[in-house]
């Protein structure tokens, strides 16, 4: 039976609707005759708000974590019983971490049948890179620079999640990340604001689509500055300049908002001494003011309550006051609003208008999602069964997984592997792991559900394969809750690995981080291969140096020894459900690697934070006599990264030539057209990411040495040449100036084009 709206106000025009304000509705006596779908959403929201009590409005601002086994008996006592009472009273607007049609439906039924106003819940979940069928971690996907593939991956995630009852994902994370120690770099698109912005748009489009039954609302996070945690330690203090905030941190958030993202999540950190959850400048002035964002902002988990620990709020009540007044619309699990907001309104510390506005924002998103037309829109068990794990989704995540792999080194053409007659030794615990490839933040997926590297390789039957674990990945009990995986120093498997290597033509070593060694709360103070893996690598190398090192990791690692010694290195991240198939296809050359790094790889931890779009400094070192020490450098390491942003090799080679600008200067309203020829100079078809960087030579505030301002992924047959065109206009050179606004300043620029951030082909131009 089609759900009928039980409140007259949404159905009838506003004037009529108000006449029923305050009337208690029951499911037995629905007022609805037919939905007036013509009424604009804002008027429907206003009409509904007019009927709501203060507590019911606050209810829309309250989000609870799933708190009981919904298909079992209802909770009789304690905190769960209280939450259950709140649910029935209409004091809960949203739930998180409840999934699956059966459970979602059971809770939705309480909201729409037992509460006074029958307002549906919105169900949120961390569908970060897939729900059951897992895509590569977002950082890996960013390495594809393939916006269509990334959008498809978000569509797949949304389709599976929506079929499982969910209507809201806490993604995309668009935090620009420069510090590889921070475990959450795996969740974003890396160090560049431009790449982050384009990917944010693709992900928002992929998740939200046309808000149909296979789409979910996106939640752009973490607003803002979270990735700048000092020393890369998660949840740590953030202290960034206004310049960095506006030019580096905020652009991807703005892009996501402009792309129509329905919700935002604020963050755990402080900014200018004010925790983001209580930060009115961020949420009211910038997001809802300057950018005109119409959706709602959810807090991060407990972040309202954490304002007490920050030393900003005296107690939870004060935190609730600051959060509400600052424009944090929904409270995720601090219980600050449900416990204190009504009293704060009565005391005049928060105006009822603030509550009404926040509740209205939440209701608006529910209307847009169609939950008032049908609160069970996402609750179709047959659809759930038919959708989750579909073959085409596996094909989709395999496609993006292959595209996410970055070839870092390939000496003597050791790759691709020959398909026949080779003896191959596969070494490393990660090679035989079916859970680690799923990576961090894949809470909807089943353990052991990924294709391991070993399984992927074994499908190529022309070669013989021997496997030896060698050493464990050194994952402690904090991550797994048991002692069995701790193996920090155990080298008992080395001998077997050496034996296998000696007997092999080629050794494939799969080393790096376990999927759960990255992600939230997984900051690292060292960035090398954990445990004894480095020693294993060097030991095996002595037995057989013909090594292909396949890295599995969620962040840039420091691998200077491998970079100097190992002939081939493949950056394979945590690639998701189809990881093993993707890696095997790359190693055997069935897919020619096309990925480019979205984060610089440091040589040593001391260089971190390390990013290509840094400022020049007053002593950049150009032309310094080598014996001088008085310039910005280290005395024991170079400034340059091991592998720069935008870098990645292919089984073929590309040549850039014929860079042309149709003019050397332009004025307001004008543009320059730039063309460059790119040739595939090898014998294999391949893809290249053609990258455009600009340098603004002097400005009212200092500018980075270069900034990505455009890219195009092109496919070239062996020997083929393509001309790639970029347009430079005023918009492209705008930045947050000394006037505290985005504008283009007249001046001189350099333009660089190439296949990585250290591109050398360049030309000057002027904006007058
Ligand atoms: C905390 C994380 O910071 C956030 O990204 C996530 O969405 C919430 N927990 C909910 O799980």
- The spatial strand order of the largest sheet comes to 11-16-15-14-12-13
Report strand %: 15-25%
Bound molecules: 1-deoxynojirimycin
- Radius of gyration equals 27 Å
Largest sheet descriptor: 6 strands, mixed
Mean pLDDT: 93
- Number of DSSP E strands: 26
CATH topology of the largest domain: TIM Barrel
Helix content: 25-40%
Number of helices: 24
Q: Which structural class should the secondary elements be placed in? A: alpha/beta
| N- to C-terminal distance | 66 Å
Sequence stretches where pLDDT stays below 50 over 5 or more residues: 1-35
Q: What is the CATH first-level class name of the largest domain?
A: Alpha Beta
CATH superfamily heading of the largest domain: Glycoside hydrolase, family 3, N-terminal domain
Count of individual domains = 3
Keywords, separated by commas or semicolons:
TIM Barrel; 24 helices; binds 1-deoxynojirimycin; six-stranded mixed sheet; 3 domains; Immunoglobulin-like; five-stranded parallel sheet
């Amino acid at each position: 039976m089609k759900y009928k709206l039980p409140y007259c106000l949404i159905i009838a025009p506003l004037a009529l609707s108000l006449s029923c304000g305050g009337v208690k509705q029951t499911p037995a006596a629905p007022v609805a005759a037919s939905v007036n779908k013509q009424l604009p959403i804002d008027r429907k929201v206003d009409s509904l708000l007019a009927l709501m009590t203060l507590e019911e409005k606050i209810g829309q601002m309250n989000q609870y974590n799933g708190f009981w086994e919904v298909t079992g008996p209802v909770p009789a006592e304690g905190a769960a019983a209280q939450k259950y009472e709140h649910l029935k009273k209409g004091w809960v607007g949203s739930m998180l971490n409840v999934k699956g049609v059966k459970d979602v439906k059971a809770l939705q039924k309480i909201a729409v049948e037992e509460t006074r106003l029958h307002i549906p819940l919105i169900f949120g979940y961390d569908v970060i890179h897939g729900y059951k069928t897992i895509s590569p971690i977002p950082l890996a996907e960013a390495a594809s620079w393939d916006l269509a593939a990334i959008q498809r991956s978000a569509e797949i995630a949304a389709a599976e999640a929506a079929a499982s009852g969910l209507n809201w994902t806490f993604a995309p994370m668009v935090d620009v990340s420069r510090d590889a120690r921070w475990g959450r770099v795996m969740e974003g698109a890396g160090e560049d604001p431009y790449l982050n912005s384009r990917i944010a748009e693709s992900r928002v489009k992929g998740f939200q689509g046309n808000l149909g039954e296979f789409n979910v609302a996106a939640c752009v996070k973490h607003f803002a500055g979270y990735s700048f945690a000092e020393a890369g330690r998660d949840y740590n203090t953030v202290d960034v300049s206004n310049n960095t905030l506006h030019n580096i941190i905020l652009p991807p958030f703005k892009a996501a908002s402009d792309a129509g993202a329905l919700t935002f999540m604020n963050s755990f950190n402080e900014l200018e001494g004010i925790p983001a959850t209580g930060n009115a400048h961020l949420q009211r002035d910038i997001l809802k003011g300057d950018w005109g964002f119409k959706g709602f902002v959810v807090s991060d988990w407990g972040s309202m309550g954490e304002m007490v620990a920050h030393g900003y709020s005296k107690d939870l009540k004060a935190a609730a006051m600051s959060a509400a007044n600052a424009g944090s619309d929904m409270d995720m699990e601090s219980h600050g609003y449900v416990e204190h907001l009504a009293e704060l309104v009565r005391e005049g510390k928060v105006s009822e208008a603030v509550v009404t506005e926040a509740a209205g924002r939440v209701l608006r998103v529910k209307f847009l999602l169609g939950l008032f037309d049908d609160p069970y829109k996402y609750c179709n068990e047959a659809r759930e069964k038919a959708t989750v794990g579909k073959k085409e989704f596996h094909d989709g995540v395999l496609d993006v997984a292959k595209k996410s792999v970055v070839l870092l080194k390939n000496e003597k053409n050791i790759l691709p592997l020959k398909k026949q007659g080779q003896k191959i030794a596969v070494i490393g615990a990660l090679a035989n792991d079916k859970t680690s490839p799923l990576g961090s933040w894949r809470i909807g997926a089943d353990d052991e559900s990924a294709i391991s590297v070993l399984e992927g390789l074994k499908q190529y039957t022309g070669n013989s394969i021997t496997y030896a674990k060698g050493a464990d990945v050194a994952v402690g009990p904090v991550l797994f809750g048991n002692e069995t995986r701790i193996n920090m120093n155990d080298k008992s498997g080395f001998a077997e690995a050496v034996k296998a290597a000696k007997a092999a033509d080629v050794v494939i070593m799969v080393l790096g981080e376990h999927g759960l060694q990255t992600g939230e709360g997984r900051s690292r103070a060292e960035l090398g291969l954990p445990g004894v893996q480095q020693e294993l690598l060097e030991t095996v190398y002595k037995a057989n140096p013909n090594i292909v090192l396949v890295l599995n990791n969620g962040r840039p690692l420091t691998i200077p020894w491998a970079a100097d010694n190992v002939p081939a290195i493949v950056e394979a991240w945590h690639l998701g459900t189809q990881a093993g198939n993707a890696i095997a296809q790359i190693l055997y050359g069935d897919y020619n690697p096309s990925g480019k790094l979205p984060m610089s790889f440091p040589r040593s931890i001391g260089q971190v934070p390390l990013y290509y779009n840094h400022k020049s400094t007053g002593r950049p070192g150009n032309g310094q006599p080598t014996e001088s020490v008085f310039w910005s450098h280290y005395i024991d390491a170079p400034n340059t990264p091991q592998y720069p942003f935008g870098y990645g090799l292919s089984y073929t080679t590309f040549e850039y030539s014929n860079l042309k600008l149709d003019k050397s200067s332009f004025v307001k309203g004008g543009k320059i057209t730039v063309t460059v020829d790119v040739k595939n100079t090898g014998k294999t078809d391949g893809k290249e990411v053609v990258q455009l960087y600009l340098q603004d030579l002097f400005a009212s505030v200092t500018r980075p040495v270069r900034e990505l301002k455009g890219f195009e992924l092109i496919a070239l047959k062996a020997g083929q040449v393509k001309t790639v065109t970029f347009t430079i206009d005023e918009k492209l050179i705008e930045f947050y100036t000394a006037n505290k606004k985005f504008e283009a300043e007249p001046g001189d620029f350099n333009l660089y084009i190439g296949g990585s951030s250290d591109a050398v082909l360049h030309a000057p131009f002027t904006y007058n």
